[in-house]
Each structure stands twice: as C-alpha cells, then as structure tokens.
C-alpha cells in the first residue's frame, strides 16, 4: 500500500483494506494470554473495540478539519475510555497550533468546568500532553449573564486566554456535575479566527486515506495504553488504592487539578468493600468502578459511582460500600455484574490527597 500514490490507494480499495487489516490486528490484543479469557470480558472487549473505532473515525475523519473545528462529545454513555468519569460531560475539538481560535460559551450551573489544549494522541506515541489549561472558577472572567469568550493561541492575549503550541491538536472540555438531573451544562462553540466567508474543502483522497490510518492507529494505541494500566493495577494488593504519579497522568491528558487513585477489586458474592477516607478541603471527590478494559460501568442503569454531593457524610469522613448487588445503604455502589475490575478515586482541588482505606467484610456486617 505504501508504494502506491494516495489516489491509487483509494481507487484500488487498498486504503480501506489496510484499515480493515489494522483493525483485525487490534483484535489480537484482546486475546493476550494475560487478559481474562472468559466470554463476558471478551464480549466487553469486542464492544470496546467497536466503540473506539467509532471514536477514532469521528476524531480523525468526520471532525478532523482544524480549519472548521466543532465541539462534540467524545466519551459518553456508549463510548468509554481510560476510566471516563460518569459525572463528566466530555467534549473536544480538533485544532492546529498554526491558527488562532475563539471559544464562545455560556457558563451554565455545572459544578466544574475545565478547558485544556493538548498535544499528541494515543495512536502516535501513547501520550496526550496537556499544554494549556484554564478553570472557569479561577481563570475565566465571566460576564453577568454567564457568557464568556476565550482566545486560543500561541501568543498570550489580554483577557481570557488559553495557551497552545505548534504541536497542539485538540481542545478538551471537562464539565463535572454534582448532579446531572439538577445542573445545567455549559454550552461552548469554537471557531478559527479570520475564517469569515470560508467553507470546508471537498473531501480528498488524502483526507480519507490518512483519516482511516489515523483512526486505526488510535484504536490500537488506546487499547495498548490502557491494557498496560489494567495489567499493572492487577499486580497491586487486592482491594487497595495507590495514587497515580501526577506527571504520568498529565502525559495522557489528565486534568492538572485532579489527583487520581487506582486499585483492583476482587471479592466474593457474600462480601463487600467498605472504603473510608478523611475529607480534606476540596472542590470535588468521587469513586467509580471500571471493567478490565478501563471503561466506566453503565451509569444510566446502575449506581456504579458516587461523589461528594450525592454521598452522605459528616464533612469530616466519607464511607462508601461496594458490593456485587445494590445494598440498602445510602453510600452503596454496585459492580453491575463484574466480579473484578478497577477501583478509581479522584480528588479535585483538594488541600490534601489521602489514600482511601479499604476493608473487606461480610455483607451481613453492613448496616442499612
């Protein structure tokens, strides 16, 4: 394929055939001997690949033009990646450090709004480095009616400014809810400056061939990256948390205001995990559960996560119960049919980052 011109790759069907061959090869990653081989985990793995393929095609084909960027939801209820937060509304837009952009928004009432520029992608080098970052409550001047504008550029600008570099390729927006049912999300649009009167160019063979290649590489890179993490977490002492190195989190697109903790749970049907932690001053904390592929569980139908607003606590200590079924406990979450998987804890804007402590008990010991 590489010996053919771009036009020949498209007209001969070689570009599509290579895309299909690359995806087929990614499927072999599911069957690595160190991965669980049961039908349930493998079925979720196949669905995971299908979801990542959708994400890759949208990222690198449908919404790839940095001259005409569009904010779209990336991770959501049916596309999940890297321990996505059930409390989050994620959106991203493809940009190019060669140009300047303007983000226009309405703040809404969502608890936390963070906007960052990022370089790299999981399909190239397994990184997504945060370059510039602004927090709506600390860094963005917002008008009385809730509206705001942000200039995204390499050169610092007066007012609301978001930094990028030559290698910047994406703007990522995280909106973190206390309670999705009661809060109003922010609404954001993005445009390239000085683009008035222009329209996107017609589809080219180069765009389709390069887009398909980038999409398949993204799927492969994402799977490899987070398989490495899952394998690592499975080596931890069961049912414990460890803090993820903050620089490591930043290299894969982590929010600079967040400290992440991970662990691996595995306990019997008649057992539960009781997780306790002192509560430092913080903007937000949450706990969630993920499967082997590091996808969040289906939070539409199961209570699989909890945050500082929804949990009952005395302001000094939090206690969360994890079981394989929903218990009659105000701070109980369930594993939604997963006998083992990833434990996650986040602190946002915390004055301290205590490691949550876990003890395994019999369900009969859990008080209502």
Q: Which features characterize this protein?
A:
alpha+beta, Jelly Rolls, five-stranded antiparallel beta sheet, 6 helices
In summary, what is this structure?
With 368 residues, the protein is of the alpha+beta class.
Report on this model:
This protein is α+β, with helices and mostly antiparallel strands and 368 residues long. The chain has two domains: 187 residues, Jelly Rolls (Sandwich), CATH 2.60.120; 132 residues, Domain of unknown function DUF1214, C-terminal domain (Jelly Rolls, Sandwich). Helix content is 23%, strand content 29%. The chain has six helices and 17 strands. A five-stranded antiparallel sheet has the order 9-10-16-12-13, with no helix packed on it. Helix 2 packs antiparallel against helix 3 and helix 2 packs parallel to helix 5. It is globular, with a radius of gyration of 22 Å. The chain starts with 5 loop residues before the first helix and ends in a 6-residue tail after the last strand. The relative contact order is 0.16.
Counted up, domains total 2
* CA radius of gyration: 22 Å
Helix/strand order, N-terminal first? HHHEEEEHEEEEHEHEEEEEEEE
CATH topology of the largest domain: Jelly Rolls
**DSSP strand count:** 17
Number of helices: 6
In the CATH hierarchy, the architecture of the largest domain is Sandwich
Mass-distribution shape:
globular
Q: How is the biggest beta sheet arranged?
A: 5 strands, antiparallel
What structural class do the secondary elements suggest?
alpha+beta
Task: For the record, give the distance between the C-alpha atoms at the N and C termini, rounded to a whole number.
Answer: 63 Å
Tell me the β content. 25-35%
